[in-house]
Specification:
8-stranded antiparallel β-sheet; Umud Fragment, subunit A; alpha+beta; globular; 5-stranded antiparallel β-sheet; 6 helices; 13 strands
Length: 249
């Protein structure tokens, strides 16, 4: 039996409609279950990921769904993996960070250097640009009175999880930080990422763009159409070609 791959000129409108519907269903399936597109909105992962990077995120290999475990090889989250997850404080938001600690790990920062289970971790991707901070760079610190962005609830929880000046990661949770350690709202400030919050891992930067209109600053709510038209008319100039189609690691 021969199968037609595309509707020809003799196709009836029901056949064309069925083909279009099948395409839409496949696209929805892929976006819903296999990959998802995200945009990087902040500096927290510089210089690994930049504002204006557009990512495709693999939602399968970290999936705990029994169907996917049987169909594709399931990969456990490892230290050093970059993950996209539901922000535990506001689950409707998505964050992207790097995994530093696994369940059961003992975490400590000494003069910005990360130690996991007493061993210093090599982190060539980490970026610093601010002066030393006694909380951010000497973590965990329990003798703090006020730290901007630090959750009071997390500080109370942290005190129960510190042993020998090391933070112990509970089962089913992960400790994450941004590669831009000086400008990242991460586990140091709000706590752990539960395993069920993990969406997936970034695969590739499918497109990357510079600020289309740097002189006018950040996008304002009322000028979305104007900025969109500007972007489309200057897409060649503002595309970061050296980052487009780059694998994320």
């Amino acid at each position: 039996m021969n199968l037609a791959t595309t509707p020809g000129s003799d196709s009836t409108w029901p056949e064309a409609f069925a083909s279009l519907l099948a395409t839409i269903i496949i696209a929805v399936f892929v976006v819903s279950f296999i990959v998802q597109a995200f945009q990087i909105p902040s500096e927290s992962m510089e210089n690994t990921l930049l504002i204006g990077d557009y990512l495709l995120v693999d939602k399968v290999h970290f999936s705990r769904d029994s169907f996917w475990k049987n169909v594709l090889p399931y990969k456990r989250v490892q230290r050093g993996d970059i993950i996209v997850f539901h922000y535990p404080v506001h689950p409707a938001e998505h964050f992207v960070k790097r995994v530093v600690g696994l369940p059961g790990d003992h975490i400590r920062l000494i003069n910005r250097r990360v130690y996991v289970n007493g061993v210093q971790v090599r982190e060539p991707y980490v970026h610093y640009f601010r002066p030393h901070d006694p909380f951010r760079d000497e973590f965990p610190r329990l003798d703090v009175s006020f730290v901007p962005s630090l959750s009071g609830k997390w500080l109370l929880e942290m005190k129960k999880l510190v042993a020998d000046n090391q933070l112990v990661v509970p089962e089913g949770n992960y400790f994450v930080m941004g590669d831009n350690r000086d400008d990242s709202l991460d586990s140091r400030y709000w706590g752990f990422v539960p395993e069920e919050n993990i969406v997936g891992r970034p695969l590739v930067i499918y497109w990357s763009m510079r600020n289309p209109d740097p002189e006018n600053g950040p996008l304002k709510p009322g000028d979305r159409l104007e900025r969109f038209l500007y972007t489309m008319s200057h897409i060649i100039e503002i595309t970061r070609w050296e980052r487009t189609l780059r694998l994320v690691h």
